[in-house]
Design the sequence.
């Protein structure tokens, strides 16, 4: 029950506008992950940026199980297997960004698509975390069963051979 595992990997590209750029970003995500992305919708209006509430402004893909681990290994390879310690939160999850999708192995620059950066968020869990999500008799995860920042860093070092830089 104490074994830590990767629950999901969420890959997000924020474009800030709908239209052609958003379709290109969706194409990039589909090429990288092999899954069809969904659009993210603006929750508030921001006049300075020209964004209205309800407008599509980005796209994301959620990967689970083997697909998640395979993609995470490729993404960490792009980052030279190094992560800063401030990428980890107190719940044991971590996130990092990639500036250019062309850094991935096998991806080439296409002038029609352009270059997109992305955010990658990784959720770590232990067995038994279902109790906080189930429909009946929801319960909080006890403190002794939660993943700490240090445990998450140790897991990433051991499982993915990542160097955590201070």
Sequence:
């Amino acid at each position: 029950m104490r074994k830590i595992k990767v629950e999901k990997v969420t890959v997000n590209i924020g474009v800030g506008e709908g239209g052609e750029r958003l379709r290109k970003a969706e194409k990039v995500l589909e090429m990288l992950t092999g899954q069809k992305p969904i659009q993210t919708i603006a929750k508030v209006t921001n006049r300075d940026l020209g964004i209205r509430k309800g407008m599509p402004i980005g796209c994301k893909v959620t990967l689970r199980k083997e697909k998640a681990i395979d993609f995470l290994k490729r993404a960490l390879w792009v980052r030279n297997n190094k992560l800063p310690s401030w990428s980890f939160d107190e719940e044991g999850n971590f996130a990092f960004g990639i500036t250019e999708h062309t850094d991935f192995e096998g991806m080439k620059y296409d002038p029609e698509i352009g270059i997109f950066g992305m955010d990658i968020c990784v959720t770590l869990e232990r067995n038994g975390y279902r109790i906080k999500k189930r429909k009946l008799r929801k319960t909080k995860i006890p403190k002794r069963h939660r993943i700490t920042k240090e445990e998450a860093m140790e897991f990433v070092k051991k499982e993915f051979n990542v160097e955590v830089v201070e």
Remarks:
- The chain has one domain: 4-165.
- The first helix runs from residue 20 to 33.
- Strands lie at 4-14, 38-41, 56-64, 82-84, 94-98, 118-126, 163-165.
